[in-house]
Amino acid sequence: MVEQDKVKLIEREQELNGLQKQFNELINRIRQLESDKRLAAQRLDHLKEREKSLGEFLSGAGAQLKNLEESIGFAEKQIEEESGAMEDLRDQLEGLRSMVDEKREAFDSKKRIVEQLRSEYQQKQRGQFDVEKKVAIADTSVMNLQRSMQQITDERTQRSSQIAQLQNEKQDAEGGLQDKQDELQQLVTRHEEVKEKILQSQEQLESLRAQSVDENRKLDARRNEHDLLKSLVESLEGYPDSIKFLKKNKEWNSDAPLLSDVFVVQNEYRTALENLLDNYLNYYIVDNIGEAAQAVHLLESNKKGKANFFVLNQFAQYQPAAHNAPEGLIPALSVVNVDEQYMPLAQHLLGHVYIAENEGNLIDQASLNGNVIVEKSGKMVRGKYTLGGGSIGLFEGNKIGRAKNLERLAKEIEDLTATTTQLKQFIADTQTLITGFNQELNDKAIEQTRQEINRLQNHIVNLGNRIENFEHLNQTGEQRLADLQDQLDATHESIGDARVELENINEELRDLQQNIAQAEGEFLEVEQEFNAATQQYNNQNIQYTRQQSKLEGLKQELSFRSNQLNDLQRQISANTEQLEQTTAQLSETETALHAGDNELYELLTRKETEERDLNEKDRLYYEMRNTISAQEGQLNQKRREKEQAETLLNSIKDKLNEMKLQLAGMKERLSVEFKVNLDEILDQPRTGEQSVEELNSEAERMKKRLENIGEVNPTAIEAYTEMKARHDFIVEQKTDLVNAKDSLLATIEEVELTANTKFRETFDKVRENFVQVFKALFTAEDSCDLRLTDPDNVADSGIEIYAQPKGKKPSTLTQLSGGEKTLTSTAFLFAIYLIKPAPFCILDEVDAPLDDANVGKFTQMIRKFSDNSQFIIVTHNKQTMAAVDVIYGVTMQEPGVSKLVPVDFRSLAN
Questions:
Q1: Cα–Cα distance between 49 and 68 in angstroms, integer?
Q2: How confident is the model at residue 874 (pLDDT cuts 50, 70, 90)?
């Protein structure tokens, strides 16, 4: 039934979709008509606004046209008047220019006369100056010679007194040097004696330090041994739980010691006796039977296992049996120390025990006579009818005599502490003694004495050198004095002629001064007349320039008004035509605005009818769909209930299978481990009375007893913890290294991928730009290319430049001619440049190998790229210079001085 309803629902859905499609088409048509109507209304409003603005412009254009015509007439009249005034000013300016030329000729004539006289006067002054300089130099030379002679005489007298003073000072310094050398010898002798004492003290100090280190090591070893033994004693390490229980139980009011605590054995025999007495070391030694019975009751009531006891009062009447000591063996009692009260017990246990130094002595004994022999190492024990032994554990020998050994270690630690304290005091005293010796070392005084000796020796040498220098200077001064006297006589003879020549030059200078004064007066009058004429001409020239500027301004205004008049006439004509077109468009738009009203009304009526039918169909469709959904919900609920029942059944089956597997495993375990067939004993009655908890406790006790059998390594946990920490650290470091390696490889791969991608993108862009620029520099028919030498390995690949000018085979850059190489290289550089243009670019004689045709292509390309960048070109090519905007020439008008000469073609073009 649900399926039939679904078929009907699909039929109604298809019918509803068809009606919905028809209704959507109707809605789209209505929206289109409404949109066309709105557009027509907007266009109508726009045309009305345009008609209004055109009418307003045409109404005001007539007044503007009249004003412009009047302004043009007035400007033409002004230009005519100002042109006449400018002609008058030009005639006046020409007359003033003629007068200025006449005055300039007279001015230049007088100026040349004055300059000639001044030149002659300057020449005479230079001659006068030369003669005066010659006389002054001669007078100065005479004075200098006389001063030098006097100075040499004074210096010779002063040096003689200095020589005598230096000789006395040298004698005193030699005496002081001898005293310092004697003092230095005494200081060195004392220094060596103190150094010998310091060496002896340092050797003693090193010996004390080495002894202190040994004693500290012994002290640390004893402390560590004491701490370990104390820990073993306090924790009863290696003893059963029953022993530990009794030791810590307050109900057993007994201070009974263990057998292992009362025997003190010499170190070399401890392993042998511990192996022999291993079964008795866990025995408590009590005074009477009551104490032992109380302990047994406590163990039984608390389920803590069993313990054994030696009863001392039972040994009160003990008489040890006589034993014949075998030859070559050591009685065990001779190596054991025990308190007097425990001596009968010791005789009972060890009176018949002897120790053999090696295995041979133990085997060679023919008759034991009831004695027991143990090897010194403890690995073999021999009785009358038995022989036992085996490997010796690392910790055997540490159990017997623990308490006594603890006391012995405490005493040794105390003695070693006192010894180390005493050694520290000896070391401190020795260091203090060495410090005192070091203070006695007078290295500073020795060094100061040596420095003083060196200073005195240098001073004596310097005094000798100064005396020799002064004597040499005296000899040189006498020779110099004789030479100066000869120069003084020659100077007096040469100065007479120069004084006569100076008098003649002074007379000629006075005559020239009178002539120059007269010529300057005449020149001043002519200069004033020339300046007045020049001033008048400049004023007239300024008026003429102003009139010319005024006339140019009127002409520009006339031209502007004429252009305005033409533009206004063109606008009036154009706007009149646009007004006619706008009026026609208004009538067409109004007709189109009301054309679709009837169709729109019919479509709106049809829309309401179809919308009601569509809503009714839609309501019926959703009612049927909700009914079907409810039926499907009920059906799904029944399916879920069925699935839950099946899931529960499967879980029960799985649990049953699991129990069967556990039962099979238990049967297998009982058969393998305990040789029990579960099927045979399943129906048998239970014979034991113990509960499960008691059985578990018994199993736990057996496990602990099993654990107590064998060697115990007290440092195993620390060793395991240390090795585990080391292993975890190494594993962690390895994991970090592996992760770092993977991360680094991933980063390298990412960087290489990014670099290769960026390089490939940039290479493709450069390649496209290279082809375009190459065709611009050559021709459109020429071809070129950029290729990678190793496309599979972009990072290490090289780049080959291929070019094929028209009519040539494809070739690399190295196979082209000089001009072709230059153009190709330029194309490649600009291809890279276009990827990221720079603000400016400098080219140094790039066009040198190019002919005129290629230079033209080069300059055209530069001109094209100069819109975005500024190019600075160093060149000697005239064609390149002609194509630029500004030229900067470098000249050297004066030697060593460069100068820039700019030429801006842009200003010339304007």
A1: 28
A2: very high
Tens digit of each residue's pLDDT (9 = 90 or more) over 484-542: 777 777 777 666 666 677 777 777 777 777 777 777 777 777 777 766 776 676 566 66
Q: Is the dihedral of CA 833, 834, 838, 840 positive or negative?
A: positive
| Tokens found for residue 268 | 């070399």
Phi-psi region of 845 (alpha: psi -120 to 50; beta: other; left: phi over 0): left
The helix or strand, by DSSP H or E, that contains position 276, with its residue range, turns out to be helix 270-276
Q: How far apart are CA 402 and CA 408, in angstroms?
A: 10
CA dist., res. 838 & res. 693, Å (int): 94
Highest mean pLDDT among 83-97, 123-137, 440-454, 741-755: 741-755
- Of the candidates 565, 281, 319, the one whose C-alpha atom is nearest the C-alpha of residue 397 is 281
What single letter denotes the amino acid at residue 240? P
Q: In sequence order, what are the residues at sequence separation of 6 or more whose Cβ sits closer than 8 angstroms to the Cβ of residue 839?
A: 869, 870
Rounded to whole angstroms, the Cα distance separating 777 from 773 reads 6
CB 261 within 8 A of CB 401: yes
Cα–Cα distance for residue pair 710/395, rounded to 1 Å: 11
Residue predicted with more confidence, 733 or 241: 733
Rounded CA-CA distance 46/36 in Å is 15
- Which of 69-78, 330-339, 483-492, 790-799 has the highest mean predicted lDDT (pLDDT)? 790-799
pLDDT > 80? residue 729: yes
Contacting residues for 449 by C-beta, under 8 A, at least 6 apart: 180, 183, 184, 187
**DSSP code at position 268:** G
Q: Residue 430: helix, strand or coil by DSSP? A: helix
pLDDT tens-digit map of 187-205: 777 777 777 777 777 777 7
Tokens, residue 712: 């115990």
Neighbours of 494 (CB within 10 A): 11
d(CA 192, CA 196): 6
| Helix, strand or coil, per DSSP, at residue 73 | helix
Q: Distance between CA 409 and CA 401 in Å, rounded? A: 12
**Separation of alpha carbons 806 and 795, rounded Å:** 33
Q: Which residues are CB-contacts of 143 (< 8 A; sequence separation ≥ 6)?
A: none
Length of the chain: 910
Q: Given the DSSP bridges, would you call strands 330-331 and 336-337 parallel, antiparallel or unpaired?
A: unpaired
The answer to whether 15 touches 614, Cβ cutoff 8 Å, is no
- The sign of the dihedral angle between the CA atoms of 353, 359, 365, 366 is positive
> Alpha-carbon distance 216 to 416, whole Å?
8
* Residue-wise burial string across 340-366, b where 16 or more C-beta atoms lie within 10 A, e elsewhere: eebebbbbebbbbbbbbeeeebbeebe
Q: Based on the number of CB atoms within 10 Å of its own CB, is 561 exposed (0-12), middle (13-18) or buried (19 or more)?
A: buried
What is the C-alpha radius of gyration for the chain, rounded to an integer number of angstroms?
Answer: 67
Token readout for 314 is 């039972």
* Least confident interval from 299-303, 408-412, 650-654, 671-675: 671-675
CA-to-CA dists, residue 344 to 259, 312, 328, 464, 720, angstroms: 13, 9, 25, 107, 45
Q: CA 782 from chain center: how many Å?
A: 51
